[in-house]
Design brief:
Shape: globular
Number of helices: 11
Helix content: 25-40%
Structural class: alpha+beta
Distance between the termini: 13 Å
Largest sheet: 9 strands, mixed
Number of strands: 20
Length: 406
């Protein structure tokens, strides 16, 4: 067999929190394993990781036994411990999930049952008890979830990068343009600066671009990333909210609805809504990338989503176009808020995997190919669950490394 000079054992594409947690897990599970992380931005956590609302999710929403439920419940406890160990700003705040209409009460009670099945402490509240937690919030009933918190995920990602011992290449040196996989040899990746990086196993944690990286590798991901932009506001009167306040989610969608989150900096994030982005990194309506948009429109699942959920989508678009409509949505939970209280804040884009039949992939999705592990759906609560996800991906990568070497 041809002798190959490898640059590393495992080559991770993507320097968000999942990619860095994978690098961290690899070097802990198998000391001496050499890891290189390629990240096209100038630093870690520049997309989903660094643009979310910083919530450490409890895992209450997710079906018992699913990867999201298992990894979020475990990951929340581990994330709090990780932040404490490394001195990263965090707080266990608890949160309220509030029903504002009678039709939401059965879904709220179902969440109580789901929380208990997932081993999460849940307390049911009436209107007077809601006011004890959040004097400005109004609702017919609520549940209090004590294990929810907030942290600085950007700082977590930076700490994972430092503690992993991996070589991390940023910018053009981390921007993958071509992948050449040889099942008997490994993978060679060409980057935008013309360099070639060789590894024995590839791990794809490319987030918004994970399906493209899978295809570059030669694997059919069986899905496409359809980007949804989440638009946020900051509350000009943060004293209106003490902690975290959520509506009862619609189980037909993987989005949690417009909610209020007091972050570790004391500011209160309001949002997000969920509208189609016109580019994978389309953080406002002015960002349009025709090739990426054509890829979204050319995927049959995109049209099936539109036909199936057009009413929901129309409401989200209305709230994007009209601040008054967005304010109206917030006022369901927080009647005292006005349009003047909402100050625009940076948006995020959710990398949502969609199957050909239009199914929105609800659980985390990890698939394997020859000498490759692909993380193909890891939106929220992936930041919360990043440490367990990283271990799972690392175990699969180490097995591929063992088989490949063997």
């Amino acid at each position: 067999m041809k002798k190959v000079a490898y640059d590393c054992d495992v080559l991770v594409i993507g320097g968000g929190i999942v990619g860095l947690a994978t690098a961290y897990a690899l070097t802990r599970a198998a000391p001496g394993t050499s890891v290189t992380v390629l990240e096209k931005e100038s630093g870690p956590a520049r997309h989903q990781t660094g643009r979310n609302s910083g919530v450490i999710h409890s895992g209450i929403y997710y079906p018992p036994g699913s990867l999201k439920a298992r990894f979020a419940v475990r990951g929340a406890a581990e994330m709090i411990k990780f932040c404490a160990e490394y001195g990263i700003a965090h707080e266990v705040t608890g949160k309220l999930i509030v029903a504002t209409e009678r039709a939401e009460l059965p879904r709220l009670h179902a969440l109580v049952q789901r929380g208990r099945e997932n081993g999460i402490p849940v307390r049911e509240l009436g209107p007077a008890q809601i006011a004890e937690y959040e004097p400005e919030v109004r609702g017919l009933a609520a549940i209090h979830v004590g294990t929810t918190g907030v942290c600085d995920y950007g700082a977590v990602a930076e700490q994972l990068a430092a503690a992993s011992g991996a070589e991390i290449r940023y910018g053009a040196g981390g921007h993958v343009v071509r992948v050449d996989r040889r099942p008997l040899l490994g993978v060679a990746v060409r980057t935008a600066d013309g360099a070639v990086v060789r590894g024995k196993v590839l791990v794809n944690c490319a987030g918004l671009h994970c399906d493209e990286v899978a295809r570059l590798t030669g694997d059919d991901p069986g899905m496409r990333i359809v980007p949804f932009r989440g638009e946020y506001f900051e509350l000009a009167r943060p004293e209106l909210v003490r902690g975290l306040v959520y509506p009862v989610p619609d189980p037909a969608f993987p989005f949690l609805g417009v909610h209020l989150t007091r972050g570790i900096d004391g500011g209160v994030h309001v949002g997000p809504n969920a509208v189609p982005a016109l580019a994978r990194e389309g953080y406002d309506w002015s960002v349009v990338r025709p090739r990426e948009l054509a890829g979204t429109l050319g995927w049959p699942g995109s049209w099936r989503i539109a036909r199936r959920h057009w009413r929901y989508g129309a409401g989200e678009l209305r709230r994007s176009a009209s601040k008054a409509a967005f304010t109206e949505a917030v006022r369901r939970l927080l009647p005292g808020v006005t349009a003047e209280d909402l100050v625009p804040a940076p948006a995020g884009v959710r990398a949502q995997a969609v199957l050909r039949d239009g199914t929105l992939v609800d659980d985390f999705l990890i698939r394997e190919g020859a000498r490759a592990v692909h993380v193909l759906n890891a939106p929220s609560p992936a930041a919360t669950a990043s440490l367990p996800i990283g271990r799972e991906v690392a175990l699969r990568a180490l097995e591929a490394l063992r088989v490949g070497v063997g």
